[in-house]
Amino acid sequence: MAVITTEGTPVGSGSGGGSSISGHLLLILTTDSGQEFVIRGGPTRGADPYGNLILEINKPLESSIDARDEGETAESRGSTIVPLGERNPLNVWD
Predict the structure, then answer these.
(1) 40-72 pLDDT tens trace
(2) Which residues contact 3 (CB under 8 A, 6 or more apart)?
(3) What angle do CA 45, 48, 49 make, to 5 degrees?
(4) Residue 69 host element (H or E)
(5) SS3 state at 7
(6) pTM listed for this prediction
(7) β-strands 3-12, 19-30 pairing
(8) Which single residue of 8, 36, 64, 92 could bond 23 by disulfide (Cβ 3.0 to 4.6 Å)?
């Protein structure tokens, strides 16, 4: 069955390097066939200064700004299932 999860990535602190205490959160839909799509918003990775907000809605995760780096997994990014009760994740996503 399809599922919607959240994943987090560190947020860069700009020219000072490092990461902030908070993280960047994104929503991921995993379809029955294993395809992953993302809803996210934020600047391009590594942009300094941050610049314009970029939205990605229903974009394949692998081609997203927040695509997983080599060696990263959903689990390493804190994947958490979004509880939807009896609602179909595909209907919620649309």
Answers:
(1) 988 765 656 667 788 999 999 999 988 999 999
(2) 29, 30, 81, 82, 89
(3) 120
(4) none
(5) strand
(6) 0.81
(7) antiparallel
(8) 8
